[in-house]
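subagent[fold] <- orchestrator: predict structure for attached chain, return tokens only, no commentary.
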Amino acid sequence: MKELLALIPETKRKLLLFLCEHRDEFRLRSDDFRLRTIFGISEETGMAFITVKKAVKEFESLGLVRVYKAGRARVVVPTEKLKEVCDALAQ
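subagent[fold] -> orchestrator:
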């Protein structure tokens, strides 16, 4: 699986690794809930907003994340499929 990761373009690989590192921070309990917006992810990763937006759209079409509208922001939430991919990459 790690060999396939090397074939992914650098920007998508960086975003995928970021989502894998922070997948446990997307809990739905109110006491430890942290929203990850596309803008927030772009700031944390140091990537351009439009780059993150396009990559997230691709990840959404693959079923790795779900994107919800919260006012003007778009909130990114990982799916179980992403968690399985992350677990496979960790091995």
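orchestrator: received. Logging for downstream: Helices lie at 2-7, 10-21, 38-45, 49-62, 80-90. Strands lie at 65-70, 73-78.
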